[in-house]
Specification:
The chain is α/β, with parallel strands linked by helices. It has 7 helices and 10 strands. The strands form 3 sheets. It has a 5-stranded parallel β-sheet, with helices on both faces. The protein has a 3-stranded mixed β-sheet with strand order 3-4-7. Helix 3 (96-103) crosses helix 5 (142-153). Its main location: cytoplasm.
């Protein structure tokens, strides 16, 4: 069964974006995954197609209305077992482990927030899993949704061609990835480390692991603490 992604957004024209190119685009052409968008505004009932209102209790910004967003979610994923994600800076940080869990399923529904936020009641009532891609704030959830889908699609079976490619990357095994080199042997006075051209595959794997540990300790010691 092909992986099926549904994205709820006020800007469906932003999709598939970069996912229409390269590996993801070719995989979509082959039918390995599909993407459909749902215009949230289509579920508004007034002639102005209003989707937001002022926050209860006062304050700046506007909030996406629960009734309208709920109708959009129900339309896209009623009687559907796919996880429902809400892109949100207050969500749990996306991890490679969570990406692999999502890729192992039959699809995902992603809600792209806008304005000040989403009414908490629809988050609870529709079981939305809040997901963050980093400690910063975007104008809306669309770029974040594209990143989540990019991470998922690239590890779907057969998308990368060599499925082993996805097993030797940063965050797989709890470490950052080791440095990479290729020809020419010497460039601007810098040589490829001799160990990589030695032909000793056991020594090469040991060097790569040591370098991965070193880089992780220098740049992301929190990953080692988790391990």
């Amino acid at each position: 069964m092909a992986f099926r992604a549904s994205v709820l957004t006020l800007y469906p024209e932003m999709f598939p974006g970069h996912l229409g190119f390269s590996l993801a685009g070719k995989a979509m052409e082959r039918g390995q995954w599909s993407l459909d968008t749902v215009q949230i505004r289509d579920f508004a009932t007034d002639r102005h197609r209003t989707v937001d209102d002022t926050p209860a209790g006062g304050g700046a910004g506007m909030v996406l209305k629960p009734d309208i967003l709920a109708r959009a979610i129900d339309s896209a994923s009623e009687n559907d077992t796919r996880p429902r994600l809400l892109m949100s800076p207050r969500g749990r940080p996306l991890t490679q482990q969570r990406v692999r869990e999502l890729a192992a399923g039959d699809g995902v529904t992603i809600v792209c927030g806008r304005f000040e936020g989403v009414d908490q009641r629809v988050i609870e009532a529709r079981g939305l899993e809040e997901v963050s891609i980093g400690d910063y704030v975007l104008s809306g959830g669309e770029p974040a949704a594209l990143i989540v889908l990019d991470a998922i699609v690239r590890i779907l079976p057969g998308v990368m061609g060599n499925d082993l490619s996805g097993l030797h990357e940063s965050f797989e095994g709890g470490l950052l990835e080791h440095p990479h080199y290729t020809r020419p042997q010497e460039w601007e006075g810098r040589e490829i480390p001799a160990i990589l051209t030695s032909g000793n595959h056991g020594a090469i794997e040991k060097w790569r692991h040591q370098e991965a540990v070193r880089l992780t300790r220098e740049r992301r010691p929190d990953l080692l603490e988790k391990g």
